[in-house]
C-alpha cells in the first residue's frame, strides 16, 4: 500500500485510563476509497481506537495521520472541518429538536448561530443557511426520512436514529467517516438499506472505517478488516482470511 493510498492512519497508538491499558501499540491504515472494518470482542478497544482517530481521546503514545498530516493534537471539531467525521455507538440525536433541525445544527455556521450570523454575517450567513437546508433535504430524501423532517428526533426508531446520525456526519461533506456499530439495534431490513447507502457513498468517493459486530455486514462491505483483542491489533486481512485464523477464533471463543 503506497503512502498516498492511505487517507487515515494510526501509528502505534496506545492509551491508558488510570492503570488500565485500553489500547496498546495499535497501528491501522484506512485506504482511500475503501471500507475498512474493525472487529473484536467487547472491550477490545474498538471504540477507543475510533475515539483516538476522531479526536475525542488523546493517545498516551503514538500518532494519528490524516492525509499525510499529523493530527494527533488536533481537536475533533478541527478534524471534522478537514473532512474526517464519525458516528457514535449510541446515537446522539437531539431528541427535543426535529429531524431537520438535527441536521441543520450539524453544519458549521448553522442557523443556531443565527444571532451572530445576523449581526456579522448578513447575506453570506443566509446563503450558508439556505445551502444547509438544501443539503439536509437532499440527504433526508436519500435515506427516506424527508417525510419525517418535522417530526421530533426522539420519535424515530433505533435504525432511523442511526441513519439520522449518519446524515449529520454527512452534512460536513466528509472524505472519511468512522462508523461505530452502525447496525446495532437496527432491524434487518434497515441494515440492508444502511449497507446500500454506505456502498453508494463509497462509489461517490467517501472512505469508511466501520466497527461492527454484525459479521454479515462486515463480510458484505469491508476489506480489509482489522481484528482487535484486549487492546491490541491481532491481524488484518480479508473476511475469508480473518475468519479462518486460529488466533481470531481463539480471541472470540477463548477466555
Ligand atoms: P469496544 O468498543 O471494543 O467494546 P472500548 O474501546 O469501548 O471497547 O473499551 C475498551 C476498554 O477500555 C474497556 O475495558 C473499557 O471499559 C475501557 N474504557 C474505555 N473508555 C474508558 C474511559 N474513558 N475510562 C476508563 N476505561 C475506559
Ligand atoms: Mg465499542
What labels describe this entry?
255 residues, alpha/beta, Rossmann fold, 2 domains, 6-stranded mixed sheet, 4-stranded antiparallel sheet, binds adenosine-5'-diphosphate, binds magnesium ion
Describe this protein's structure.
The protein is of the alpha/beta class and 255 residues long. It has 2 domains: 172 residues, P-loop containing nucleotide triphosphate hydrolases (Rossmann fold); 62 residues. 38% of the residues lie in helices and 24% in strands. The chain contains 10 helices and 10 strands. The strands form 2 sheets. A 6-stranded mixed beta sheet has the order 6-7-8-3-9-10, sandwiched between helices. The chain has a 4-stranded antiparallel beta sheet with strand order 2-1-4-5, covered by helices on one side. The longest helix has 20 residues. About 2% of the residues have low confidence. Adenosine-5'-diphosphate (ADP) binds next to strand 2 and helix 1. The site of adenosine-5'-diphosphate (ADP) has 11 residues, from strand 2 and helix 1. Pfam families: ABC_tran, BCA_ABC_TP_C. InterPro entries: AAA+_ATPase, ABC_AA/LPS_Transport, ABC_transporter-like_ATP-bd, ABC_transporter-like_CS, BCA_ABC_TP_C, P-loop_NTPase. One of its GO terms (molecular function) is ATP hydrolysis activity.
Bound molecule kinds, no repeats: adenosine-5'-diphosphate, magnesium ion
Spatially, the strands of the biggest sheet line up as 6-7-8-3-9-10
The tally of beta strands, per DSSP, is 10
Q: Terminal Cα separation, in Å?
A: 34 Å
Query: What is the CATH T-level topology of the largest domain?
Result: Rossmann fold
Low-confidence stretches: 113-117
CATH superfamily of the largest domain: P-loop containing nucleotide triphosphate hydrolases
Using the CA coordinates, give the radius of gyration: 19 Å
- Mind telling me the CATH class of the largest domain? Alpha Beta
Helical coverage, percent range: 25-40%
Sketch the topology as an H/E string, one letter per element: EEEHEEHEHHHHEHEHEEHH
Structural class: alpha/beta
- Beta content comes to 15-25%
Q: How many structural domains in the coordinates?
A: 2
| Average of the residue pLDDT scores | 91
Compute the number of helices: 10
Domain ABC transporter: 1-255
Protein name: ABC transporter ATP-binding protein
InterPro entries: AAA+_ATPase, ABC_AA/LPS_Transport, ABC_transporter-like_ATP-bd, ABC_transporter-like_CS, BCA_ABC_TP_C, P-loop_NTPase
Family: Belongs to the ABC transporter superfamily.
Amino acid at each position: 500500500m503506497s503512502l498516498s493510498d492511505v487517507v487515515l492512519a494510526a501509528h502505534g497508538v496506545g492509551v491508558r485510563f488510570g492503570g488500565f491499558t485500553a489500547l496498546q501499540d495499535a497501528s491501522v491504515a484506512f485506504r482511500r476509497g475503501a471500507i475498512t472494518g474493525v472487529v473484536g470482542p467487547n472491550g477490545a478497544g474498538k471504540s477507543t481506537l475510533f475515539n483516538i482517530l476522531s479526536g475525542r481521546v488523546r493517545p498516551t503514545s503514538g500518532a494519528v495521520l490524516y492525509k499525510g498530516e499529523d493530527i494527533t493534537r488536533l481537536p475533533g471539531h478541527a478534524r471534522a472541518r478537514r473532512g474526517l467525521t464519525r458516528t457514535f455507538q449510541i446515537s446522539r440525536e437531539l431528541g427535543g429538536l426535529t429531524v431537520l433541525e438535527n441536521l441543520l445544527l450539524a453544519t458549521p455556521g448553522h442557523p443556531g448561530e443565527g444571532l451572530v450570523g445576523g449581526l456579522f454575517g448578513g447575506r453570506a450567513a443566509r446563503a450558508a443557511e439556505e445551502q444547509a437546508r438544501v443539503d439536509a433535504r437532499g440527504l433526508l430524501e436519500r435515506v427516506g426520512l424527508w417525510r419525517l423532517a418535522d417530526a421530533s428526533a426522539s420519535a424515530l426508531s433505533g435504525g432511523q436514529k442511526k441513519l439520522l446520525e449518519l446524515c449529520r456526519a454527512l452534512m460536513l461533506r466528509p472524505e472519511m467517516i468512522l462508523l461505530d456499530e452502525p447496525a446495532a439495534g437496527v432491524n434487518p431490513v434497515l441494515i440492508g438499506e444502511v449497507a446500500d447507502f454506505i456502498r453508494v457513498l463509497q462509489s461517490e468517493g467517501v472512505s469508511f472505517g466501520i466497527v461492527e459486530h454484525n459479521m454479515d455486514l462486515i463480510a458484505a462491505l469491508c476489506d480489509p478488516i482489522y481484528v482487535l483483542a484486549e487492546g491490541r491489533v491481532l491481524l488484518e486481512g480479508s473476511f475469508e482470511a480473518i475468519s479462518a485464523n486460529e488466533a481470531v477464533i481463539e480471541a472470540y471463543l477463548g477466555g
